Amino acid sequence: MAGKAPEDGYTADPFVPERGGLAALRRAAADCRGCPLHRDATQTVFGAGDAHARVMLVGEQPGDQEDRQGKPFVGPAGRLLDRALAEAGIDPGQAYVTNAVKHFKFTRAEPRKRRIHKAPTLREATACGPWLAAELAVVEPELIVVLGATAGKALLGSSFRVTRVRGTVLEEEIHGRRERLVPTVHPSSVLRADDREAAYDGLLSDLKVAARALG
Fold this sequence. Notes:
38% helix
């Protein structure tokens, strides 16, 4: 249809370069208009970390701090995740972290008020899927740690339930590659939990499963 905006197609495909490493992907992602979320976000927040990481951690979407700084997992949830990874025996500095959705989706009760996180839809996560596929193809991790329900549905389909499979090693075909995955909760859910200590222990237990799977 004439005059149709790229975001109406709900796919990042036209924006993903055919070749190049993470730096080329990051540059291209900065101009992504594959879904409407780019309109309100400050910037694209692409993945970061070791380009040859053995483990890739996939979360839901950037939060407020990530959107402002342009880096994933730099807010309170990211600090908690780093702590849990280190305790589990996985060096955070040797991991690659990214999100299923690369733009911050939020709502505001009033103008100039705090931006409130809003969960992305499966359609938005699917639109962003080509970026995740490209990251996987470049990094080629031995293991993917799936952080929360949105990331799980983006990678494994709409029937994914984190409570059913957390702390187990799954083997599935993801974007044309056979992958091993360990699902767990998103670290932000630990921060929101009534019993934060128990929630943290659960996350730590799941990450220890991931550490053992890496050997």
